[in-house]
Amino acid sequence: MLLTGFPSAVFGTNCYVVAPAAGEECLVVDPGIEVLGQLGDVLREHRLRPAAVLLTHGHVDHTYSVTPVCGSNSVAAYIHTDDRDRLVDPLTEFASSGLLAMLEQQFGRAATWAQPQDVVEIADETVLELAGLRVRVVHAPGHTEGSVMFALDDVPEGAPADVSASLLTGDVLFAGSIGRTDLPGGDHAAMLASLRHRVLPQPDDTLVLPGHGPVTTIGRERATNPFLRELLAS
């Protein structure tokens, strides 16, 4: 499996591109703020054609470029039903946090938004057959109501020999940490339940591809992540 990722210019949100191989159709996961140039470079370098955009949740740092990516490639955006409303206008709920003012200051223009023309709602255990890949949806609320992880029964080329599956965790699980629950849609009790019932049951040899920061594995996080260790001890 070909998988490449890079952080966005704002908040370091990881945008991933996944395909069976170079020269094939691909999936774009979480195209955030100011990613279009680098995403275009990746697509050209590997001769990839987007077949869909997958969104781990509806916060604007993961969705800001979804509409131009979908529109320029005539593809749909896939998001959990419980976060669908965030694609109507994800900027509004962050206005009070100063995010919009920060974007204007950094890029010298006002942030604008239009939702994708084609949106497909997904649910827990939905299996997507897209771009020659099989992707299973794992609903894991807590960061938002509709936060999901995307599970693939394959690993990227060049991955360590001791991993056998991949999990795009969005803002549910990071290397050494977990997603915040103090942002719009956050629920700490729901996050703890997701970690206990959706993350901890994953096999140790699962490669974790988080929404921010470096890759890790379930086994490494089970052994070292303080949030998971606390749950295991309780």
Distance between the termini: 38 Å
Q: What is the domain total for the residues?
A: 1
CATH homologous superfamily (4th level) name: Ribonuclease Z/Hydroxyacylglutathione hydrolase-like
What proportion of the residues form beta strands (DSSP E)?
Answer: 25-35%
Low-confidence region ranges:
none
The string of secondary-structure elements, in order, is: EEEHEHHEHEEEEEEEHEEHH
- CATH class (first level) name: Alpha Beta
Q: What would the principal axes of the Cα set say about the shape?
A: globular
Helix content: 25-40%
- Oligomerization status of the protein chains: single chain
Structural class label: alpha/beta
- Specify the biggest β-sheet: 6 strands, mixed
Task: Write structural notes for this entry.
- This protein has one domain: Metallo-beta-lactamase, Chain A (4-Layer Sandwich), CATH 3.60.15.
- Helix content is 25%, strand content 27%.
- The longest helix has 12 residues.
- It is globular, with a radius of gyration of 17 Å.
- The model has no long low-confidence stretch (mean pLDDT 93).
- Pfam families: Lactamase_B (PF00753).
